[in-house]
Amino acid sequence: MIKRVPIKVNRKPIKLNSNQKIQMKIWEAMEITREDDIYELSQHYNMLMMEVTNKAGYNSLSLSGYTEHKNWIHFESVYEICRMKGWDAKLYLEAQFERSRTWTKFKYPFPNTLYSTKAMKYFMAYLGDIKIKYKQDVAGRKKERGKETKELRSRVIEEIVKSVERVLDFIEANRRMEGEQAKAMAIFNHWEQMSPFYLWSIPWFHDVMKDIDVKKIEDYKREFDRIGSSKSIQRTIEETVQRVEETFRLPGNMQFK
């Protein structure tokens, strides 16, 4: 019988010199920056999607653990392709949305279609057109940069202001109604023209929404769920609604029993 004897290996810790340690820290910092850049790219995609679909709060990645989401690898691929070719990644995304405007089934590109051969060829032609069109234009170089991504907080504030303005227009057109009643009627009759961010702040609308039987309400329910999962968005909504309604002197909400 063969007796097995374990082999002992003397393991010595790897010692890094000061230069190697600095290099490691630089790599770590670069990886963190890279992840932030890819996430920002996904936020730019979200903004473009909201412009096309007219839906607030669109998310292409999960709110937590977003690097594990199935779409992360697609944004990562777009980021790497643009980095290697020296392209502006945000402008690249905008070009893909421009390309999809002529499509029949969907008017927007899915993340997994963003870096196909056709997509890259389209962008090269798109970039060439810009350079030719603005060759003698000082602003031409600016055209080669993607537009700034709106922060979520900015979108929340902007959409709430627009919603409050719609409510105010209805109240002014129906002066015979009492303030709270006119506000409630404006929201009930024209909720489809208002932002989910604003409607989330109306307590009674949460109950009314359960009985509304139209397809669009499902989008609003999903937005409410997203808002409900983010304390920071909730705080932004509450603070903005209070400030904006006070500025426009809007009445309070009706109390339903």
Notes on the protein architecture:
This protein folds into 2 domains: 18-143, no CATH class; 152-248, no CATH class. The longest helix has 36 residues, at 18-53. With 257 residues, it is an all-alpha fold. α1 (18-53) packs across α2 and α3 packs across α4. It is 62% helix and 0% strand. It has helices spanning 18-53, 72-85, 89-100, 117-133, 140-143, 152-173, 179-190, 196-199, 203-209, 216-228, 231-248. The model has no long low-confidence stretch (mean pLDDT 80). The chain is built from 11 helices and no strands.
Portion of residues in beta strands equals under 5%
Q: In terms of quaternary structure, what is this?
A: single chain
Q: What is the structural class?
A: mainly alpha
Q: How much helix, percentage-wise, in residues?
A: 55-70%
Main β sheet profile: none
Tell me, what's the shape?
A: extended
Total beta strand runs: 0
- Determine the N-to-C terminus distance: 87 Å
Summarize the model shown.
By secondary structure, the protein is mainly α.
